[in-house]
Specification:
Radius of gyration: 20 Å
Number of helices: 2
Number of strands: 28
Strand order of the largest sheet: 3-2-1-28
Largest sheet: 4 strands, antiparallel
Mean pLDDT: 91
Structural class: mainly beta
Distance between the termini: 25 Å
Order of helices and strands: EEEEEEEEEEEHEEEEEEEEEEEEEEEEHE
Length: 463
Amino acid sequence: MRRFLSLSVAVTAFAIGPVPTAGAGGPAAAAVPVTDFNHDGYADLAVGAPGGDVGGKDGAGYLTILYGSSAGVRTARPQVVSRASAGVPGAVADYDGFGATTAARDFDGDGYTDLVVASTNGPTVALWGSATGLKGGVALDVPEHSGPLAAGDVDGDGHDDLVLGTGLVGVEFGPISRAGVSAGRTVVPFEDAEGEEDRQARYDFVVGDVTGDGADDIVTNHGAEDTLYSGRLWKGGKDRSVTRVPGAIAPSSGGVIADFDRDGHGDFATFTAGTNSGDADTEPGTVSIRYGSPSGLSARRAAITQSTAGVPGADEPGDGFGRSLAAGDVTGDGYPDLAVGVPGEAIGKVAGAGGAVLLRGGPKGVTGAGATAFSQSTAGVPGASETGDHFGGRVLLADVNANDRADLVVAAPYEDAPQADSGAVWVLRGSKNGPITGGIASFAPAGLGAPGTDATFGVNLAR
């Protein structure tokens, strides 16, 4: 049970869950990517444990792959992947943090979701999906890069693209060959690099179709050292262009793009808590939403906190309401819902125990109406609220049992389970009334045959 999650780790790229269909509420929502490594129709989980020891190397890091099924997450046969795994390029190294930075999409276009993994020391690798799950891999032929990874179809050609930190924004266009070579590349250079490079530093890429033209757009969050700067929207183009849309986005961290009101334009939800990264540890936190339009992010916006009508809890210093966000249709009504991590939430007198809140999407967008909250003190949730667990440090919505309702996946990266800071993950099944607390699946490294001490299992849930 250690420090809070750093902003630079909190990368959220795009929504995962069932695909809403057209209905009375509005046009059909855009297809939502599903992480399905073995293409069996069930969403799979890739849980990062970047602090885990591998082969005697401290903090080398690993990923645990858990496959979905009609009964939910299959924990009996987990797949643990690290630099030591057969076919994974690069050497096992101290503090490599393998598993902290990922992007999941079908990069080679064969119908199976692939997983790109970057780390501190080794090459950025693609692990290929197959009928038997992830296997093998290749070192990608990409320029040196830093920061987050994300994915989407930036040129709208039907092939998934990789977004990464080469220059200010870099896109490797799909399909990516099994030799690790992309079909094309666009790099937006740093602006005025000599005088303003620090200001251009990226915290996150958030990818989705804001304008509704069929090509995904990119929101970049920015900061340097302890200061956050205004974000930017970059329009994807079918000519493989990446063009900045005029205007600025209030300083924020992470986020997700989903069409919450189903008007045909992706909406940007993000976490805000001042202009200093340290504010996230002292301020309650706000989920800020800007709604999409044909020209970009519109003037229509909303701010949701734990003081918003219908939202459980109360604004308290250091709650971190929105530090992790994910979108997907939990209730099956065709509207994406928004999962909100509140990792600094005090449960009773237990500081930093953490919680998660589900906000409903609908014709009016995301509101507090019908919101529900969960913690390890909620009846039916395994475990107990303990100081510094940070339950809700990472959230994900993924339909692991393929019943057309996204399941709520919640991680507590600093849970002692039982090793110090080993981390743990819970899966709450989706239903027409929201996540249910009966039959919750929970798992941690100790039960999966993986290294536990300081592993921070769940600090990243690949998407």
